[in-house]
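Deliverable D4.2, example record:
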Amino acid sequence: MSEDAKKMVSEAEGSMSDAIQHLDKELGKLRAGKASPAMLSGVKVDYYGTMTPLDQIGSISTPDAKQIVVQPWEKSLLGAIGKAIQAANLGFVPKVEADVVRIVLPPVTEERRKELCKKAKEEAENAKVSVRNIRRNIMEKVKKLKDNGTPEDEIKSLEKDVQDVTDKFIKKADEVVSAKEKEIMSI
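Output generated by the structure prediction step:
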C-alpha cells in the first residue's frame, strides 16, 4: 500500500474516532438516574458580561447519586449560577444555599427513561452519519488517486480498508449506545 493510501486510512480512523468520542460526550450529558458533573457541561453563566462555562467559575461535585453541588469561587455568582442552570432547562431546579448551589435530582420515571433511550439512539445515528460522511470524503480522495493512475488492485484494497474501518466504527457506535441504554433502563 502506498504512503498516500496509508495516510487516507489513518485520516479516516482518526476522524471516525473523533465522532465516537463526541458520541460518548453527548451521551454523558443524558441523565441515567445517577448525578454526574457532565450533566451541567452545556451551562454558561454570565460572568461580568461574558458567557462562561460553569466549570470555569466553580467546582462541580456529586456528593451522592441523587445530587449535584456547584461551589463557585466567588460567592457573588450564586444567584447567576442558579439562574443559568434554570435557564438551561435541564429538568431540575437548583436551590441556592449559603455558599453552594445544590441540585437534587428527581427520580426518573419509566416514560422519561424511554425518552432518554430515544435521545441516545438519535445521538448514535448522528455519529453514524458522521462516520459515513467521513467515509464518503475519503472515497472521493480515493477516486482522485484512481484518476492519477494508481493501480486498480491498490484502489480496491484501499476501498476495502476504508470500508472495514467504517464498519468497525459503526459497530462501536452501536456498542456505546447499547451500553448507555442498559444504564438508562436499569433502576
